[in-house]
Automatic annotation (TrEMBL), chain A:
InterPro entries: AhpC/TSA, Thioredoxin-like_sf, Thioredoxin_CS, Thioredoxin_domain, Thioredoxin_ResA/DsbE_sf. SUPFAM superfamilies: Thioredoxin-like. It is found in: Cell envelope. Its main location: other. One of its GO terms (molecular function) is oxidoreductase activity. Keywords: Cytochrome c-type biogenesis, Disulfide bond, Isomerase, Redox-active center. The keyword Disulfide bond applies. Gene3D superfamilies: Glutaredoxin. This is Thiol-disulfide isomerase or thioredoxin. GO terms for cellular component: cell envelope. Residues 62-202 form the Thioredoxin domain. GO terms for biological process: cytochrome complex assembly.
Automatic annotation (TrEMBL), chain B:
This is Disulphide bond corrector protein DsbC. InterPro entries: DsbDN, DsbDN_sf. It comes from Bryocella elongata. Keywords: Signal. The keyword Signal applies. Residues 1-22 form the signal peptide. Residues 51-159 form the Thiol:disulfide interchange protein DsbD N-terminal domain. The keyword Transport does not apply.
């Protein structure tokens, strides 16, 4: 009798373990499916309208229509420049790096447009942002590009305030009130750049 | 009583594999290498190679650059650009003698007249190694590079490189 009870108990134990395993498995699968669904992204072309200009989050925070984060940084020749001091002017804030080919392609365009629209109170600031370079390295790269506008050594705090992605160049077009009119992750064409500058200047003058 | 004990042990042994299955984590997708390539923009394709014992032997490591991206060759034309460089340490009976890089291919950024010298798609780095004895040795190192697309660049990255070299 005792043997039968114990055998029945053993079988019951096996069944209990199997049921528990099944429940755990189902629970884990449901959790994994929910996680997969949450991570799923559909890459579909955007048709038109504001959504067409949407900036993917991985390319940095969208600051358009918001106040540009203020910063005080040092130029290559040791001067301090604070963004807030430039209110009343249209300011281009261009993050770049010496290793970045597209950055160095667009920098001479900023130089050209900075001079072309100087009477419209356009100011260009180049913010170098990269690890492991000295001011001399940066100065050497700047000399190659031929630009003469102020080059500032950006820090992590400033990059974080702007919400930079893992991607350069990134340019912010700031109007006279200090609001970001537009931003460009990656180098645009020269025509696109000039159109954005005109838009920012027009916003400053409105 | 012994028979009862045997029944219980048998029941537990039967149940153990199912319990183990329930404890395993579940991974959907599973293409971790592909995800790593997307993150790093470069993927090592040759993680196991064979060579002969003795003397200086050539082996080839294949890498793949993510579509739409390029990395500088080992000899970029511009001193400011970061060259692709492979470091692989000698280990055990295997000595790494030299690393030879492929020539880059010219690549022009839009709106630029100065061609870059880059690797795209698949590129192969040749190494000369000397294995003193037969067997499999794990060689470790890294590939340092910096990736860009047509309009922007990512910071320099270091891809861990692990190769199982079997000498026969």
């Amino acid at each position: 009798m005792l043997r039968r009870v114990l055998v029945a108990g053993g079988i019951a134990l096996v069944l209990a373990v199997l049921v528990t395993a099944g429940i755990h498995n189902l629970r884990d699968r449901r959790a994994a499916m929910q996680q997969a669904a949450a991570q799923h992204v559909d890459l579909t072309p955007v048709a038109s309208g504001d959504a067409a200009d949407a900036i993917p989050p991985e390319l940095g925070r969208d600051l358009r229509g918001k106040a540009a984060p203020d910063f005080t940084l040092t130029t290559l020749d040791g001067r301090h420049i604070q963004l807030a001091d430039l209110k009343g002017k249209t300011v281009i804030v261009n993050f770049w790096a010496t290793y970045c080919g597209p950055c160095r392609v667009e920098m001479p365009w900023f130089e050209e447009f900075g001079k072309k629209y100087a009477n419209d109170k356009l100011v260009v600031l180049g913010l170098n942002y990269e690890d492991g370079v000295t001011r001399d390295d940066v100065a050497k790269a700047v000399k190659k590009t031929g630009v003469t506008y102020p080059i500032l050594m950006a820090d992590d705090k400033t990059a974080k305030a702007f919400g930079l992605g893992d991607y350069l160049p990134v340019t912010y077009y700031v109007d006279a009130k200090g609001e970001v009119v537009d931003q460009s992750p990656g180098a645009p064409t020269k025509d696109q750049m000039e159109a954005t500058i005109k838009k920012a200047i027009a916003r400053s003058q409105s | 009583m012994k028979a009862v004990a045997r029944s219980l042990v048998a029941a537990l042994l039967l149940a153990a594999p199912f319990a183990a299955v329930s404890a395993q984590s579940i991974s959907l997708g599973g293409d971790n290498a592909h995800s790593a390539a997307k993150l790093q923009h470069v993927l090592l394709l040759s993680d196991a190679v064979e060579t002969k014992v003795g003397g200086s032997q050539a082996i080839e490591l294949r890498f793949r650059v993510e579509d739409g991206f390029h990395i500088n060759s080992h000899h970029p034309k511009d001193e400011l650009l970061i060259p692709t460089a492979l470091k692989l340490e000698s280990a055990g009976a295997v000595q790494v003698l030299s690393v030879d890089y492929p020539a880059g291919k010219p690549f022009k950024l839009p709106s630029s007249n100065d061609p870059l010298d880059v690797y795209q798609n698949e590129f192969r780095v040749m190494l000369r190694v000397a294995a003193k004895s037969p067997g499999t040795t794990e060689l470790n190192g890294s590939l340092h590079y910096q990736a860009c697309d047509n309009a922007a660049c990512f910071p320099p990255r270091t891809l861990p490189v692990k190769v199982l070299l079997t000498a026969k």
